[in-house]
Amino acid sequence: MKTPVRHIGRLLAAASILFAPLASPGFAAHNVAATTPDLGGVWEVTMGVRTRPGTGTVELPSLTPEYAQKLAAFKAAQTQGEDEESPQANCVPPGMPAIMNQPYPIELLFTPGKITIVIEAYSQTRRIFLDGRKHPPDPDLTYNGHSIGHWEGDTLVVDSVGFTPDTALGPSQGYRHSDQMHILERFRLTDPNTMEVVTIIDDPKALTKPFSATKVLKRHREWDIAEYICEQNNRNLATDKGKAGIILNH
Amino acid sequence: MKTSFTLGLALAVLSPIAIGHHSYAMFDLGQTVTLKGTIRDFQWTNPHSWIWIDVPDAKGAMQQWGIEGMSPNYLARRGWNKHTLNPGDKVSLMIHPLKGADHGGSFLSVTLADGTVMRQSGEPPPSSAPSSAP
């Protein structure tokens, strides 16, 4: 990526200068939305596409020694039959970034000053503020974080912080992140019903350099988001040691 | 069958978390078993559909198996509905069995009485609605 995520603050400062002459945040967002690409509707990740831009290969996060140790401990526990299962087996949502990479669709809703992403898996919601606000100086730590966005030409750029370290960075539960994880997502259309999302993740505690992954989503205009109540008939389970289980009574 | 298994492996390698709800550690992915029997119940529920099937064992005694499939949300976009399987249907199921002796497994495909084969993996059909995007 040409834009290191650690520089995103400067990008946002530039964006706020661009928007400054407009009368109000609500008006600004409405006006911008009318001239920006149509990213609305229901989208599904095309599976198996998770690559570093330009390389076509799968990139793994480059961990700091502290977090490499966490991964080593995770792998050691797996050899003992532990940590084979994730909290998702107990219907705990994965949080960011994994919640954006599920085998279920998402819906992007545009309203003045805000984009809402309705995520079918685990019935999750992300709110991306485009009304000029900044991140809170000391955000509460949540699964999906605090997101602000702006447009760079035809690309929607979303900056997110405030993540609880309870969730995994991925690609496995052994790859952890800290409360300093910082995610930049760049959404753009590559054809009328295809959207590329480049996700760049930085974490000064966990990563030695930003980690990026690109996914491709297809728009399905005839689809609606369906109900997903994970607790309805969940027969999977993870024990407190991460051992997988299954419930077969019927 | 090869297609489904290859896809499963590819997903497991590329994006374990993206598979979604749980790992497949409890299933023996190296083994494929065919169950011939009678549907007892088809649970069209999240986070997984469940096929309950009575299968005669070597001595002719009926054994109930529970087979986990993808969710209704996923399957409905790939040609399934809540009536795809019904109690009393005679079917042939291909599964990856659980490790160990319990009668459970992970769904691969089902052959219905009329010979129709239903799978669950793969991309959905492309959108047929007209596009209004630029």
What's this entry about, in short?
The complex is a heterodimer of chains A (about 250) and B (about 130). By secondary structure, chain A is an alpha+beta fold. Helix content of chain A is about 15%, strand content about 30%.
Description of the structure:
The complex is a heterodimer of chains A (250) and B (134). Chain A starts with 7 loop residues before the first helix and ends with a strand. With 250 residues, chain A is α+β, with helices and mostly antiparallel strands. The model of chain A is unreliable at 1-31 and 49-57 (pLDDT under 50). Chain A has a 9-stranded mixed beta barrel with strand order 1-2-3-4-5-6-7-8-9. Chain A has a two-stranded antiparallel ribbon with strand order 10-11. The longest helix of chain A is centred in the N-terminal third of the chain and has 15 residues, at 65-79. Chain A has helices at 8-19, 25-34, 65-79, and strands at 41-45, 106-111, 114-119, 124-129, 146-152, 155-161, 182-191, 194-202, 211-219, 236-238, 244-246. Chain A has a single domain, classed as Lipocalin (Beta Barrel), CATH 2.40.128. Chain B is mainly beta and 134 residues long. Chain B has one domain (23-119): Nucleic acid-binding proteins (OB fold (Dihydrolipoamide Acetyltransferase, E2P), Beta Barrel), CATH 2.40.50.140. Helix content of chain B is 13%, strand content 34%. Chain B is built from 2 helices and 6 strands; from the N terminus they run αβββαβββ. In chain B, strands 1-2-3-5-4 form a 5-stranded mixed barrel. The longest helix of chain B is centred in the first third of the chain and has 13 residues, at 2-14. The termini of chain B are far apart. Chains A and B meet through strand 11 of A and helix 1, strand 1, strand 3 and helix 2 of B.
